Amino acid sequence: MIGFLRGTLIVKRPPSLTLDVGGVGYELEAPMSTFYRLPDTGQTLSLVTHLVVREDAHSLFGFFTEAERMLFRSLLKISGVGPRIALGVLSGMSVDGFYHCIRDKDLVSLTKIPGIGRKTGERLLLEMADRLPEAQGADAAALPARSTAEGEAHGALLALGYRPGEVVRMLKDLDGVRLSTEDMIREALKRVHRERASER
Fold first, then answer.
1. Full-prediction pTM beyond 0.90?
2. pLDDT at 89
3. Which of 11, 87, 140, 195 is deepest in the core (most CB within 10 A)?
């Protein structure tokens, strides 16, 4: 599984882009929520990724934040929702906006997204209700990550086994602009150790 790429942005032609990573060109598809935040070609870019494997193709999808990837993965678990519809959702509204639609049972807004009809919209409202961040113990502040560094740190801490809500608290108020990904992870882990030490 390819979970993360950092390289030079060579081509950006929605919905696809190409990253040069150590001389290897990776072609990815990305939602417009990511494209709106891309730098100019020739600049360094970091994206979290998701690989979809099918009999006839391997497709790599890139996201600017961990929140986008988490929503993309959740949508793929819904019957009748494939990568194209999932990209359409992320292109049609923000991650936070989508979760608000689910909370408010806003079927009208969902069906305005290309590829989502009434039946698919109703299925999303039903099946995504228990996949909202707060339903999984996460704070609303998890959406979206403030910066590339924070998004990378968020994903790394989740991979280490911390729950979404814990990760949000661990990264709260850390400056993702001034700190590197490694520094953010280091500071977040220090917080956890201090908290646990004070509880003893």
1. no
2. 92
3. 87
Residue entry with tokens 């639609």: 101
Between 175 and 83, name the one with better pLDDT: 83
pLDDT band at 30 (very low <50, low <70, confident <90, very high): very high
Where does 79-152 show beta strands of DSSP type E? Answer: none
Question: Which residue range is the domain that position 86 belongs to?
Answer: 67-136
Give the pLDDT mean for 83-97: 89
**Pairing state of beta strands 58-63 and 16-21?**
unpaired
Which domain-ending residue is among 88, 115, 136? 136
* DSSP output for 38-84: ---TTSEEEEEEEEEE-SS-EEEEEESSHHHHHHHHHHHTSTT--HH
Residue 94: CATH number of its domain? 1.10.150.20
Residue 62 pairs in a beta bridge with: 49
- What pLDDT sits at residue 123? 92
Task: Calculate the CA 176 to chain-centre distance.
Answer: 16
Residue 72's φ and ψ, nearest 5 degrees, are -55, -45
Answer whether the bond into residue 14 is a cis peptide, omega within 30°.
no
